[in-house]
Amino acid sequence: MRLTDAEKALLDGRDGKARQKAMELLVRYGEALGAERFVDTTNVAGVPGQASVFLTNYYKEAGGGYDAIFSHFDLDSDELVDVPQVVTHSCHLQGGVDPDNWQLLGASAEAARVSRESEAYAVERGIKILKTCTPYLVGNVPRMGEHCAWMESSAVVYCNSVLGARTNTEGRESTSTTSPPSSPVIICRTSDRLRPSAGCPFTDTMTSCGSM
Q1: What span, in angstroms and rounded, lies between the C-alpha atoms of 86 and 63?
Q2: Which residue stretches of the chain have pLDDT < 50?
Q3: Which of 6, 22, 124, 151 has the smallest CB count inside 10 Å?
Q4: How far apart are CA 111 and CA 13, in angstroms?
């Protein structure tokens, strides 16, 4: 992939370990998709750092806490990193359990606690909690032509076809890399076909792979 000087600096770790790990994952993602370069994006919607009882127990030996989940699960990092503030507009879609009606849904008290704490962790880093998989219905409406990195298949279709913005079909890892750790969210482009995108909220760019 062709990287700019700023992207090379992120990859070299000059802006911290978290952003370096995010860029490492984004570059791997872009190379796997045959992307040639990254483009800036300004709107991320995923589930960064979302935890469950299983994940909190699984990563206890890796340092525990939500930094461990974000480092190892979201960023696929071999090191525990301190997760910084996001530097681009980032939203957290539906995840966890209903904070008020968790008993009605059959969730445990522990699951409700973990859900509340992981969302609070995201909020502390500048991520907006939406509690829906249709972000455009609760105020997150991108401009026509704006580059986004969104999860959720129906939201992706609506974003591209109705709103006229541009996003690939993202997953947790690609949107998480574009939210808190990198610098800007970056989008990779290839030929003239839309490809899955990746992002890193820690950068002010996010990465999505595709050509729009």
Answers
A1: 22
A2: 181-212
A3: 124
A4: 35
Q: Which of 90, 72, 96 is nearest to 203 (CA)?
A: 90
Q: Which residues face 129 on adjacent strands?
A: 92
Domain ranges of the chain: 5-48+85-189
Task: Count CB atoms within 10 A of the CB of residue 54.
Answer: 10
CA-CA distance, 188 to 33, in Å (whole number)? 9
Backbone φ and ψ of 43, nearest 5°:
-150, 115
In sequence order, what are the beta bridge partners of 148? 43
121 and 66 in contact (C-beta within 8 Å)? Answer: yes
pLDDT digits (tens, 9 = 90+) for 56-114: 999 988 777 899 999 999 999 999 999 888 888 999 998 778 889 999 999 999 999 99
Three-state secondary structure readout of 160-201: HHHHCCECCECCHHHHHCECCCCCCEEEEECCCCCCCCCCEC
Nearest Cα to 134, choosing from 96, 111, 163?
Answer: 163
Prediction pTM value = 0.81
63 alpha carbon, distance to own chain's centre:
22
